[in-house]
From TrEMBL:
It comes from the Eukaryota. Residues 40-306 form the Septin-type G domain. This is Septin-type G domain-containing protein. It holds the Pfam family Septin. It comes from Odynerus spinipes. GO terms for molecular function: GTP binding. InterPro entries: G_SEPTIN_dom (IPR030379), P-loop_NTPase (IPR027417), Septin (IPR016491). Residues 344-407 form a coiled coil. Belongs to the TRAFAC class TrmE-Era-EngA-EngB-Septin-like GTPase superfamily. Septin GTPase family.
């Protein structure tokens, strides 16, 4: 940067001053600039910060001699909110697009620690919007509505004791972002003696806390005197009013009290005229210029540095914007390639890990399948053995059943021929049985003997225990008859040997 300034100094020293031999006409450039500016119009944005009820809206109406029709603000908001209203004003042939931003609910919360954050964020947001418009490839700044705040009117509560902590903190946060003009609201509530002490105390507290307020410029010879004197009157003690009172032949904004009338535009009553003179009639363009060249440039510099741009490299050598962009692009590509490699390695590792998991799961499934197959084979083998055994048992049972049926039929027929008369007389048929095959005998008797026409019940006898069981051969009945002891009077025991041998 020092090299560039040195070269400029050499260039300036080598420039020759020439005199014109006649009128050329470039002395009309200021007029051309004025005409173009008048044609495009002007933009001015005011931020009003102060507690609810300090007369911010009333002062705006008084400054621009109109009614902006603002609505009263509530006192019970949980946080600070900013409301922006834009108006188009015209005086003679000059158009002004005026934006008034009001802080609704400022200072009304119990915890006022973060009240300034909403205001700071709003100012930064307007700077950021303008910066993004500048960084576009296709810019349209001529038609872009500039919403950057040009001046902040900070309304101080007329306590007469000094600034509040919230006032000092807020102005300290804003002094590098906006032009601050402190004003004492409702100054008609303080006596003149107290007002001067109050002003001195405010300036002292601002200086002690390092708060930088807007100083009216003194580098312009045309306004150096008035601006120097007005800097001594800051903070301005103002009064606003929407009521008009006739004073002489003129209607003037005034506030009427039982003890008299306070005229808003009377410089002996308040500093309203001084504020209007400095804010609108003398230094409006200077505030617009300082906002762009100082506060916005400071924000732009910080944001570009955050993006990685700089005027010098690591060796403190000047670099162009293109070089910075190429360096940033190279760094970005390297970081991108590094991230891509890391993601590729991570992906390969994940794939290998997943493949190992799948192989392990496949192995477990194969083992489980082999086990199930083995169990199935063993179960099938057991079932085949059981089926074969059951078939053998069925065949053996059928064989024995057939054999028993044949023997029983033969014995029954023989018994029927020889003892038919005896059975008719005794009405009983005695058959020997063993206790443990009682059921089997009963079934065989039903299947074999029952088809034979027996007119008498069947009596089953166990000779070893000398017990008999009377059995009716009705298929619907089972061992319904009780078991009786075998008496010596039973004379049919001679028939038992033959039937027992059959069993």
């Amino acid at each position: 940067m020092a090299t560039v300034e040195l070269e400029r100094g050499k260039l300036d020293s080598s420039i020759r001053n020439l005199k014109l031999s006649g009128h050329v006409g470039f002395d009309s450039l200021p007029d051309q600039l004025v005409n173009k500016s008048v044609q495009n119009g002007f933009v001015f944005n005011i931020l009003c910060i102060g507690e609810t009820g300090l007369g911010k809206s009333t002062l705006m109406d008084s400054l621009f001699n109109t009614s902006f029709e603002s609505t009263p603000s509530p006192h019970n908001l949980a946080s600070v909110k900013l409301k922006a209203h834009t108006y188009e004003l015209q005086e003679s042939n000059v158009k002004l697009k005026l934006t008034i931003v009001d802080t609704v609910g400022y200072g009304d919360q119990i915890n006022k620690e973060d009240s300034f954050k909403t205001v700071v964020d709003y100012i930064d947001a307007q700077f950021e919007a303008y910066l993004q418009e500048e960084l576009k490839i296709k810019r349209s700044l001529s038609t872009y509505h500039d919403s950057r705040i040009h001046v902040c009117l900070y309304f101080i509560c007329p306590t007469g004791h000094g600034l509040k902590s919230i006032d000092l903190v807020c102005m300290k946060k804003l002094d590098t972002k906006v032009n601050i003009i402190p004003i004492i609201a409702k100054a008609d509530t303080i006596s003149k003696t107290e007002l001067q002490k109050f002003k001195s105390k405010i300036i002292s507290e601002l200086q002690n806390n390092g708060v930088h307020i807007y100083q009216f410029p003194t580098d312009d010879e045309s306004v150096v005197n008035v601006n120097s004197s007005m800097n001594a009157h800051v903070p301005f003690a103002v009064v606003g009013s929407t009521d008009f009172v006739r004073v002489g032949n003129k209607m003037m904004r005034s506030r009427q009290y039982p003890w008299g009338t306070v005229q808003v535009e009377n410089e002996t009553h308040c500093d309203f005229v001084k504020l209007r003179e400095m804010l609108i009639r003398t230094n409006m363009e200077d505030m617009r210029e300082k906002t762009h060249c100082r506060h916005y440039e400071l924000y732009r510099k910080r944001r570009l540095e955050q993006m990685g741009f700089s005027d010098v490299d690591s060796d403190n050598k000047p670099v162009s914007f293109q070089q910075t962009c190429e360096a940033k692009r190279s760094i970005h590509l390297q970081e991108l390639q590094q991230k891509e490699d890391e993601m590729r390695q991570m992906f390969v590792a994940r794939v290998k890990e997943k493949e190992a998991e799948l192989k392990e799961a496949e192995k477990e499934l194969h083992n489980k399948f082999d086990k199930l197959k083995k169990d199935h084979t063993e179960e099938k083998k057991k079932l085949e053995e059981s089926r074969k055994k059951l078939e053998d048992d069925i065949l053996e049972f059928n064989r024995r059943k057939t054999q028993f049926a044949q023997q029983s039929q033969h014995h029954t027929l023989t018994l029927g021929k020889s003892k038919k008369n005896s059975l008719s007389e005794h009405h009983e048929l005695y058959v020997g049985y063993s206790r443990n095959i009682e059921i089997l005998i009963y079934k065989m008797v039903q299947d074999v003997i029952y088809p034979v026409d027996l007119p008498v019940p069947l009596v089953l006898i166990n000779p070893s225990k000398r017990m008999k069981l009377v059995l009716n051969l009705n298929p619907q009945q089972r061992f319904e008859e009780p078991v009786h002891p075998l008496t010596t009077e039973d004379s049919e025991l001679d028939h038992l040997a033959e039937f027992s041998a059959l069993l």
